[in-house]
Amino acid sequence: MRGRTGVLDEIDGDPMEGVANLFDVAMVFAVALLLALVLSYNISELLDPTSSVTVVKNPGEPDMQIIIKNMSSIQILNMTEQLGGGQGTRIGTAYRLRSGQVIYVPENETSTPMRI
Fold first, then answer.
1. How many Cα atoms are found within 13 Å in the side-chain-facing hemisphere of 73?
2. Which of 23-32, 50-59, 81-90 has the highest mean pLDDT?
3. Radius of gyration over alpha carbons of the chain, in Å?
4. pLDDT of 62-90, one tens digit each?
5. What are the angstrom distances between the C-alpha of 30 and each of 2, 22, 24, 48?
6. Rounded CA separation 35/43 (Å)
7. C-alpha angle 65/70/71, rounded to 5°?
């Protein structure tokens, strides 16, 4: 009888011991999967804390987003209205000189040109 109780004590262990090992394996797999995803899209700059990256999602669509990562800060800009459309009045003309300077001439002829 004594030998039999000794065998039962060895079998009765912690039933959650195997689950803890499975959790560790799942975490390593998840990290490896995320790293492979980042490397496959060639966007490893997102992981570098000293780099700046701009990503445009859905360009030209009404739900377009611009994601700007500047060093360690991330800013998300959502498109809320169409730019460049609508009604307006002409306020002047801008000219680019050969030197690269831009001169703005207002419609009102009494004003002097401004250099921009």
1. 2
2. 23-32
3. 32
4. 888 888 888 878 888 888 765 566 677 77
5. 47, 12, 10, 20
6. 10
7. 145
What are the boundaries of each domain within the chain?
1-42, 45-85, 89-116
Q: What's this model's pTM, rounded to 2 decimal places?
A: 0.38
DSSP H/E element including 30: helix 17-40
* CA-angle at 25, arms to 24 and 30, nearest 5°: 100
Question: Which residues contact residue 38 at a Cβ distance below 8 angstroms, ignoring those fewer than 6 apart?
Answer: 44, 46, 47
Tell me how far apart the alpha carbons of residues 93 and 98 are, in angstroms, rounded to a whole number: 16
Taking a C-beta distance cutoff of 8 angstroms, is the pair 103, 111 a contact?
no
DSSP character for 16?
T
